[in-house]
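Re: weekly structure request thread

Next one in the queue (341 aa):
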Amino acid sequence: MGFKTLFTGMAAASLAVSMMASAAFAENLRVMAWDGYADKDWVKEFTAETGIGVDVVFIGSDDEAWAKMKGSEGKDFDVFAVNTAQLQRYIAADLVTPIDVDALPSQKEVLPRFRDLTTVHGDTKDGKVYGIPFCFDSIGLIYDTDKVKPAPTSMSVLWDPAYQGKVLAYDNGEHNVSFTALTLGYQDPFHLDAKQLAAVQAKLIDLKHNVLSFYTTADEAQQIYKDNDVALIWANYGQQQLKALQAIGAHVAYINASEGALAWLDNWVISKGVHDKSAAEKWINFMISKTVSSQLSERTGFGNTVTATASAGGNDKLIWLDNVEDPLKRSDIWNEVKATP
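Done, posted below.
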């Protein structure tokens, strides 16, 4: 092979590598999110502003999100949404990448409770930020304003004999143990010892005396409310559940308990397999903008981390969901509670 031929071949190879690199850089941002977190108009606006295309995959459960991330060791997605209770699992499995908060101007404009990320349990580890809070909702109390007076301030009203047979409760052992632990004054409702769990179980058995029915879906709770004399609902589905009831004309209101309300907090997180970290951070910055955040709350009823909403006042005490000491034990406790006459 002559020098000219060799040079031409090397140049062609170099050009091919360059084109491949450019193509890789220009590929669409790969996003995994819950329905309602990456609406088409937001994606279109983001692309218009940044020139970055977006491919979105929607997931329907925490287990599905974990399977997709773990299955590819984080290589199939650049950025995804996950709650704080799950995030530590991804960090431990080395599936996520620290985020440069300085690259997110919008983070300086978030509500005070979400500004210092070291105070948001689950979002940091070893001084590094892995999650940027995006939206949340509390698990509060819905009460009928015609039947419950004065307005309640604590979940303890669920045990009030005045409302015997007028309470709707959620059919879930893990959450029920946690909120009852808060009602009993336990500071950490997610990590209880044997004595505390026994006290919670006894308290839940007492609650059954007031419960009309246990529900599993928001639609089911709404139907029971329409067909029965219901005064109080332990609202697992938060503000969405409230909005749905108000839409059918129910005279209801919502509170976050003074002892603390359980709450979930979803974050934007960057995958370990991210192809363009800068593009991923641009996406996060865009999603926590005031415009997108306020629209999110209008469309879903969820609270957002930038503009104040009905989901939680500045003084409301929110207890972000965390992994519990023994999920199977809690399930057993709940089954025993339901089986107790």
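DSSP finds eleven helices and 14 strands in the chain. Residues 1-25 have pLDDT under 50 and may be disordered.
Next request, please.
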